[in-house]
Amino acid sequence: MALSVKGKSAIVTGAGSGINLSFAQRLLDNGCNVLIADLGLRPEAQVLVDKHTAAPARAIFQQTDVTDWQQLERMFEVAEKEFGEIDIVCPGAGVFEPHWSNFWRPPGSAVSKDSRSGGRYATLDINITHPIRTTQLAIAHFLRHRTSGSPKHIVHITSVAGQNPVFSTPIYAASKHALNGFVWSMANLDKDLGIRVTAVAPGVIKTPLWTEHPEKLKMVDGSDEWVTPEEVATVMLALVQQDQVSETIGDQTGQGPQFPVKGRDHLGSL
């Protein structure tokens, strides 16, 4: 089920910065068209889009609020119009329990955007509802528009927080535990329909999500080893390109493939 990404097309949410931007760049560098869906583009993302305006690999930006299901549907419509058949989808947009949707700053508090009458947490809308809905839309697109017979891939970004309790960020940890379970539950799509659903599970990544928030940096042990977005993106590309993917958590080999990315030693296992 190996897939060369050259000449293929992808949708990557949250690719205006961080890991998803690095993944979009890896895809473009290997000849894959990419629709970048995000609220906005950081300067480095704008440079990437400006660089890839024409063949052999095009990048386009679609402003998207991933909590809005109509905008997610529009994202697929635009990608199909621009590229035709989509081969790779990465619902990568996520947040690390920000102050505006944080368990320890409850709905209705001064800094929270979660309303006491709203019935929802923004962190969960972004981190788990959006990837689930995007996966549904991706599967529907794959089944309707599969003309080439090539394998299809959905690559999620979970976290080591999805394998451990995290007292400081319980909503975030809950969202990543849920995403792990969702990915494992999608395992049969690979053999039944040729749609591989995978995930990477990074530790602390050197992205603006951390580096621009001093309050979060206080949570990082000075001995912790940063993993770069580029390293995680390399693993994500491997998940798409290699023939076989095996489970590396516990003894559930083959049941919902993942590659934990806790540090450079784990990256070497590829």
Strand content: 5-15%
**Could you say how many structural domains there are in total?**
1
Q: pLDDT average, as an integer?
A: 85
Tally of separate helices: 10
Major β-sheet, in short? 7 strands, parallel
Shape: globular
* N→C terminal distance: 17 Å
CATH homologous superfamily label:
NAD(P)-binding Rossmann-like Domain
Strand order of the largest sheet: 3-2-1-4-5-6-7
Radius of gyration: 18 Å
Oligomer: single chain
Question: Any overview of this molecule?
Answer:
With 270 residues, this protein is an alpha/beta fold. The chain has one domain (9-267): Rossmann fold. 40% of the residues lie in helices and 14% in strands. The protein contains 10 helices and 7 strands. The protein has a 7-stranded parallel beta sheet with strand order 3-2-1-4-5-6-7, sandwiched between helices. Helix 3 (69-83) runs parallel beside helix 4 and helix 4 (122-145) runs parallel beside helix 5 (170-185). The longest helix has 24 residues, at 122-145. The radius of gyration is 18 Å and the shape is globular. The two termini are 17 Å apart. Mean pLDDT is 85; it is low at 248-270.
List keywords for this structure.
oxidoreductase activity, acting on the CH-OH group of donors, NAD or NADP as acceptor; NAD(P)-bd_dom_sf; seven-stranded parallel β-sheet; 14% strand; 10 helices; SDR_fam; 270 residues; Sc_DH/Rdtase_CS
